[in-house]
Amino acid sequence: MAATSPAAVELAVKLVDGDKRALARAISLVENDDPMGWELVKEVFPRTGNAKVTGFTGPPGAGKSTLISALIKNLRARDETVAALSIDPSSPFTQGALLGDRIRLTEHFLDPGVFIRSMANRGALGGLSEATLQAVLLMDAAGRDNVLIETVGVGQAEVDVIDHADTIVLVLIPGSGDSVQALKAGVMEIPDVIVVNKADHPMTDTLVREIKGVLALGNPVDGWTPPVVQTQAAHGIGIEDLVAAIDQHRAHIIEQGTLQERRRRNLRHEVLELATISLRHEIEAVIAADPGAQELLDQVVERKLDPGSAAREILRRRADQT
Asked: DSSP assignment of 199-267, as one string?
């Protein structure tokens, strides 16, 4: 295994010391798939595993950013440090995050105990960038007590957040078709805590009853039934109840011994995901350089060869080249 470069070691030292600029640069390196970024993760990985990682998911307009901003304020009052990672839609031109650092989180920008970063999802079906867990690991290594992940609202596919966090918070709002759809979709199977935000809406009680009805049909995971917390994030109402629910879930999974199981699953998923991405890149390179592989694709287009047979032949050609 190649030794870590001096530049990566120097940046890793600054990151571990809590330097916000070093953390920002490290995440950029990982997001851009720079080899130095992977060196950094390798260097600091032994120092990870200490942060409390909470994922926030839910339909667009549910108020996730406002809720996270209010949550950060509460955590800072407890003298806990925070890193927030918002996964935003990608620009089709630059592949960057369209929204940049979330406007609703600007009140925390000057707080040295808070680090805020947006990351483009780059078309990831689950609403999360392939570099998300790497960024979370870097935030963890930088000594942040809490890492909060906010996903782009893309519907049922964003269940991918379950592979990145210790506790999953689903945010819904009353009077929304998207929230009703979430009740029917597989996304209802993943939350550990459910928040009904904008709870001053007249349809709040109806939505809470519907949520509890759906939960009653399922089986509690590890003896835990997701609590339903009502909040008005814009006014800071219900945030203490949310913090308490998240704390209770963490205490539960620690007591049950499932926290390490979750993290084992998350890291296993990450290894397989990175291996899959790497393999895809290799196969794409084979296809680009091999006229025979291109001919196979043409045969599929002409309906002379089925896709499965073409895929097996391309894999055989790759094996012959390695």
From this structure: TTSTTHHHHHHHHHHHHHHS--BTTBPPPEEE-BGGGTBTHHHHHHHHHHHHHHHHHHT-HHHHHHHHH
Angle at 87 between CA 28 and CA 234, to 5 degrees: 125
CB atoms near residue 98 (< 10 Å):
13
**Nearest residue to 175 (alpha-carbon basis) of 195, 196, 189:** 196
pTM of the model: 0.84
Query: Is there a contact between 286 and 318 (Cβ–Cβ < 8 Å)?
Result: yes
* CB neighbourhood size of 286 (10 A): 19
Residue with tokens 């390798």, as numbered in its chain: 42
Q: What is the pLDDT of residues 192-218, one digit of tens each?
A: 999 999 999 999 999 999 899 888 887
**Angstrom distance (rounded) from CA 231 to CA 242:** 8
Report the candidate in 174, 104, 171, 165 with the shortest Cα–Cα distance to residue 140: 165
